[in-house]
Amino acid sequence: MKLATLKDGTRDGMLAVVSRDLKTAVLADTIAPTLQRALDDWTFIAPQLEDLYLQLNADRALRSFAFDPKQCMAPLPRAFQWADGSAYVNHVELVRKSRNAEMPASFWHEPLMYQGASDDLIGPTDDIVLGSEEWGIDFEGEVAVITGDVPMGCDADEAGKQIRLLMLVNDVSLRHLIPPELAKGFGFVQSKPASSFSPVAVTPDELGSAWKASKVHLPLRTSWNGTVVGQPNAGVDMVFSFAQLVEHLAKTRNVRAGSIVGSGTVSNKDASKGYTCIAEKRCLEVIAGGVATTPFMQFGDTVKIEMLDAAGKSIFGAIIQQVKQAPPMIKRGRAA
Amino acid sequence: MKLATLKDGTRDGMLAVVSRDLKTAVLADTIAPTLQRALDDWTFIAPQLEDLYLQLNADRALRSFAFDPKQCMAPLPRAFQWADGSAYVNHVELVRKSRNAEMPASFWHEPLMYQGASDDLIGPTDDIVLGSEEWGIDFEGEVAVITGDVPMGCDADEAGKQIRLLMLVNDVSLRHLIPPELAKGFGFVQSKPASSFSPVAVTPDELGSAWKASKVHLPLRTSWNGTVVGQPNAGVDMVFSFAQLVEHLAKTRNVRAGSIVGSGTVSNKDASKGYTCIAEKRCLEVIAGGVATTPFMQFGDTVKIEMLDAAGKSIFGAIIQQVKQAPPMIKRGRAA
């Protein structure tokens, strides 16, 4: 099934079931008010949502309405966890190579992962509002899963069974703020602003045979200012499956329902597949000619991230965002 | 006022107001069911909770009961953000010195901070359940704040106004897993298991004159297996105030209500004040004699972290935890 969270003025939005063709939706608030609440009690709630999904697809759902991605918040507008892997090690190797650094061999057999901010996840068509172009604004096209409760120390097999939903992500990155943060060793704080997510989250069965061995075997298509710049296959060159990423995350602690785990920037070794982040393009330029010539995003730029099924239909709906300059800070008159 | 979250079998627990002397409590569920819900609408909810707090302190609250810290979850059992600073730069310098590494000078004027996991924050008397003593189990005594909504790019003055509550933290750390994770640059994932928090969260006014310039000017007392090992003053040698830590966090993104921001391990330059994490003690041993002799925690060990006011009364209640071995993983029969 396909689920979305609609804007209603609240912090967590309103849960809706969306039809397979993304054309209609119906509120699911009588089943569960929010997606987090559904995830909190998934085995009880999911079958009821599935029933509603079947009715909607058969055009038999009461009070259905046209689905508008512009009304979507992130499926989880705020989550209790967002942990992002770097499963496409090819991407990591390219980045290192471009700065003449050796990538540790361990990166091929142990996932690289960082803990991201999850208090303010933004919707698929929300603007990317940032203070300065000087920060080196970049997109990163990724796939992510939402988990149920994953017990500490479980293996990949068990971890994989707790994958509830899948989404697309634009993991916005501020490239010029990354080197000083990485040098400190403590990961990303300022260099990873709010990430945005696809209009709908889908259960793995929606992917059919494209969901195999805990990977999504379909191209992820990224367009920048209207031009397709990448369509690498998310199932190719993914060194760690989602099950393995979740296993890694759960090694020393329980991972609780509603945790989002990302794949990292999708990247294929076959460079003809293009790129899903500008940084990779720039790395290739540096490796080829010593100088990066493609600039990062400017205010006004747009990015679109989408995944189509074998029949050419959008699975998750599209992330379509524009970069905008933050207005100058206005001091509030009094402590709120 | 003082607020606690009581165990009721749900994921988020039940909000209670606790008396200043920590002796009695009263459910606040008719005002706000959970602490997060109170934080979501603080300006409306807080005055109602304050009224109840006044009644409770005057012994006029209906249906009050004896307050038992064992019934407490973390004030926020799951939070949308846990970002931990390293404001006691002295501690960072000692760690570096013990491994003959130079600390970058920038650490004195820009906060070091990492994004931590917040999906499973544990209660003040919950066991620290871990898989192996070989991981190098350590406690870290800290102070933390909970924020309201902090707008992107605001200054420390504005950020400080959004500090709603204060807590104590035991930021459990797995010392032997840290070096390989830090070497990758992506911060802590496996080396920082679930953190635990004090029985109550308190509004800054509860600290009286000890809350000054956005720092807590009181000793933080840590006991290990019943022996006091540290009582450094949290207001001394704190290079970055909580307001500055929140400002740092909010540089490139909006920080949403219910975000927890930690001080990092409390540490004074005056070594006679002892230590609030074993790693620091071991660093001092290495610097003095070349070898760390104090072992990390073993299964069965206990740690107690508390802060007393000038009159010797506990402000937050005590974190009292025992380290226990995780039972072997039992595979569940079917996908949940």
What does this structure look like?
- Chains A, B: It comes from Actimicrobium antarcticum.
- 2 copies of one chain form a homodimer.
- Chain A has 7 helices and 20 strands.
- The first copy, chain A, has 336 residues and is an alpha+beta fold.
- In chain A, the strands form 5 sheets. Chain A has a 6-stranded mixed beta sheet with strand order 6-5-18-9-10-12. The first copy, chain A, has a 5-stranded antiparallel beta sheet with strand order 4-3-2-1-13. In chain A, strands 7-20-19-16-17 form a 5-stranded mixed beta sheet, with no helix packed on it.
- In chain A, strand 14 and strand 15 form a beta hairpin.
- In chain A, helix 3 packs across helix 7.
- The longest helix of chain A is centred in the first third of the chain and has 16 residues.
- The radius of gyration of chain A is 19 Å and the shape is globular.
- The model of chain A has no long low-confidence stretch (mean pLDDT 95).
- Chains A and B meet through strand 6 and helix 5 of A and strand 6 and helix 5 of B.
